[in-house]
Design brief:
It is a single chain. The chain is mainly α. The chain is 66% helix and 0% strand. It is built from nine helices and no strands. The relative contact order is 0.11.
Length: 196
C-alpha cells in the first residue's frame, strides 16, 4: 500500500482490525507499518507514539460500542432497556475482543472531556438508570456495578472461564434479572456525589 494512502483515520482502522485479529497487546507501530508496507518512522506523521494510537483506538471503539448500545436501547425503559444495553455490550465485547480491550485502557481526562462518544455514553447510561429513579451519588455507584458485572462476565466468558455445565446464556439472563432487582430496590444515599 503506498505511503500516500496512510491517514490517521486509516491507521486507527487498521489498528482496531489488528487488535481483533491478534489481540490489543499485539498492536504495535511496527506491526502496522508492515501492514501498510512502510517503515515505522512513516507512521509518526499520523500519530505521536503508541500511546497516542491506543488512545485513538479506545475512542474509536468506545464510539462503536455506544452506537450499538444506543440502537439497542432506543424506545425502551426499565428492565427492557437494561437487557438491551447488557446484550449489546456483551455482543460487542465478544465479537470484537481487541476493540473491546481498547475501551478498557485509561485515557487522559482532558481527552475524554472532548469526546462526543464519552458524552453520549454518559447520556445513554445515566438516562437508562434515571428510569429507576436514581440520582447522585447512586447513579455513579450503579454505573460502576453495571460496568464491573458486564466486564467481568464478558472477560470470563471470552476466556472460557465458565466450566460448569449450566448454560452461559441462562446465567447471563439471570445476572441481568438480578441487576434489575438490585436497581429497582437500590438503597439510596442521601448526600451528593460525583461521577467516576
Amino acid at each position: 500500500m503506498p505511503r500516500a494512502g496512510i491517514t490517521a483515520d486509516r491507521l486507527v482502522t487498521a489498528a482496531v482490525e489488528l487488535a481483533d485479529e491478534a489481540g490489543f497487546e499485539n498492536v504495535t507501530l511496527s506491526a502496522l507499518a508492515r501492514r501498510f508496507g512502510v517503515k515505522d518512522a512513516s507512521l509518526y506523521s499520523h500519530v505521536k507514539n503508541l500511546q497516542d494510537l491506543r488512545t485513538r483506538m479506545a475512542l474509536r471503539a468506545g464510539g462503536e460500542l455506544i452506537d450499538r448500545i444506543a440502537a439497542a436501547v432506543a424506545g425502551r425503559a426499565g428492565k427492557e432497556a437494561l437487557a438491551a444495553f447488557a446484550g449489546a455490550y456483551r455482543a460487542y465485547a465478544l465479537e470484537h475482543p481487541g476493540r473491546y480491550a481498547a475501551t478498557q485502557i485509561r485515557v487522559e481526562q482532558t481527552l475524554l472531556a472532548d469526546s462526543p462518544a464519552l458524552r453520549r455514553t454518559a447520556e445513554i447510561t445515566y438516562g437508562m438508570l434515571r428510569a429507576y429513579g436514581l440520582g447522585e451519588p447512586d447513579l455513579t455507584d450503579a454505573v460502576r456495578l453495571l460496568r464491573a458485572t458486564f466486564h467481568g462476565y464478558c472477560v470470563l466468558e471470552a476466556g472460557g472461564g465458565f466450566g460448569a455445565p449450566r448454560d452461559v446464556e441462562q446465567s447471563w439472563n439471570r445476572a441481568v434479572d438480578a441487576l434489575h432487582t438490585a436497581l429497582t430496590h437500590w438503597p439510596r444515599e442521601e448526600h451528593g456525589g460525583s461521577r467516576a
